[in-house]
Amino acid sequence: MIDFNRKTILITGGAGFIGSNLAFYFQEKFPEAKVIVFDKFRDESRFSNGNRTSFGHFKNLIGFQGEIISGDITNKEDLARLNDFKFDYIFHQAAISDTTVQDQKIMIDTNLNAFRDLLQMAKRHKAAMIYASSGAVYGKLPAPHKVGVEAPANIYGFSKLAMDYLAYEEMKKTDLPIVGLRYFNVYGPREYFKEKTASMVLQFGLQLLRGEKPRLFEGSDKIKRDFIFVEDVIQANIKACFAKKSGVYNVGTGKARSFKDIVDILCKELGIQREYEYIPNPYVKQYQFFTEADIAPTCEYLGYEPNYSLEEGIKADIPYIKKIYDEEIV
Ligand SMILES: NC(=O)c1ccc[n+]([C@@H]2O[C@H](COP(=O)([O-])OP(=O)(O)OC[C@H]3O[C@@H](n4cnc5c(N)ncnc54)[C@H](O)[C@@H]3O)[C@@H](O)[C@H]2O)c1
Fold first, then answer.
1. What is the pLDDT of residues 226-239, one digit of tens each?
2. Cα(317)–Cα(278) distance, rounded to whole angstroms?
3. Whole-prediction pTM value?
4. What is the residue with the minimal CA distance to atom 20 of ligand 1?
5. Do residues 73 and 38 touch, judged by C-beta distance below 8 A?
6. 3-class DSSP assignment, residue 264
7. Which residue ranges have their beta carbon within 6 Å of ligand 1?
8. Mean predicted confidence (pLDDT) in 21-29
9. pLDDT for res 284
10. Are the C-beta atoms of 157 and 204 separated by less than 8 Å?
11. Which residue numbers delimit the NAD-dependent epimerase/dehydratase domain (predicted)?
């Protein structure tokens, strides 16, 4: 295990869901690490789909004592503020994480062009680059999803695949570790401020606590995804720092579970019995009906092993779901 104490760590997107969990991981486990969060934070601007253009929120960072820099990864002047540091590790989480955004230019500018600049920064700093790719690169391909066979069904998945191709090119030119992590469907604490794009674990949990019927898409017992608890995503990021080989790896549990399973588990954990409501799926055309990560290479080259089944992850998430309900909803 690497001792991150006295190391300088950059977390882009550190005010978001996964980035803020990483920031607290380092603060708690390696109090002498210097952690810098760089994030655009949210403002009032919205995409044409009605969602915010960025989801970073100060409440995800309450208690975080490292340095915080507000800035946009697509703005070179903002990035220049990072020249004051000498990074050992870069965890690049900042992105348009909303898979329903249609604006292709801003998606490519934010997810791909900015990554090009950050890869150059990693080289200048001689830093390891661990970045967030996505299971969305597989689109509607049949599972299990293996690195090397991709067919994104939307501009988000396309932008993440283009990041991976760029990373492969850079891997040929440098010995510095570059690891892309294709997260599947992540859920867990600090995701509330993603609003409508937060995981269905949180959304169903809040529907149940509000006394509503959980709203599932028709056929939800057969719509299956590889749902992964955020603690396992953090584990993958940490293990990526001492990967046996640079590369792109899937981060999931390797087991597809249905949306109905989520509601069943939540009902059990919350002690709630309620009828379910079934609604038509408006996203049918670009919807992933079955995702399951092949995690064999992740286990072999990163030493990664998922610790949370869906049952265990939801159980661990319940205090957060209740806290959000108490603090933000009632
Ligand atoms: N959560 C998931 O299920 C999931 C699955 C696959 C991949 N990912 C990827 O993981 C990463 C983290 O996702 P998340 O779920 O934490 O999402 P998130 O939206 O909570 O976090 C992304 C953060 O990036 C920031 N950001 C956005 N645009 C920026 C910009 N131009 N400059 C600076 N900061 C900017 C946002 O403010 C936000 O805090 C993203 O790259 C996302 O695409 C997430």
1. 999 999 999 999 99
2. 24
3. 0.98
4. 16
5. yes
6. helix
7. 13, 15-19, 39-41, 54-56, 72-74, 93-97, 110, 132, 134-135, 183, 185-186, 194
8. 98
9. 83
10. no
11. 9-252
Catalytic residue among 194, 224, 239, 260: 194
Q: Which amino acid is at 27?
A: Q
Nearest CA-CA partner of 2 in 121, 89, 123: 89
Tell whether the model's pLDDT for residue 275 goes beyond 80: yes
Q: Residue 131 is encoded by which pair of tokens? A: 């970045």
- Mark whether 156 is an active-site residue: yes
Residue nearest to atom 7 of ligand 1 (CA): 134
| 287 band by pLDDT with thresholds 50, 70 and 90 | confident
- CB contact at 8 A, 226 and 256: yes
Out of 10, 11, 12, 18, mutate this one to test ligand 1's pocket (max ligand atoms within 8 Å of CB): namely 18
Atom of ligand 1 nearest to the CA of 74: 31
pLDDT digits (tens, 9 = 90+) for 132-157: 999 999 999 999 999 999 999 999 99
Distance 231 CA to ligand 1 centre (A): 16
Tokens found for residue 166: 């760029």
Amino acid at 78: D
Q: Which of 131, 138, 156, 304 is catalytic?
A: 156
Nearest to 286 by CA among 147, 149, 99, 161: 99
Delimit the domains of the chain by residue range: 8-188+228-253+292-308
**Amino acid identity at 283:** Y
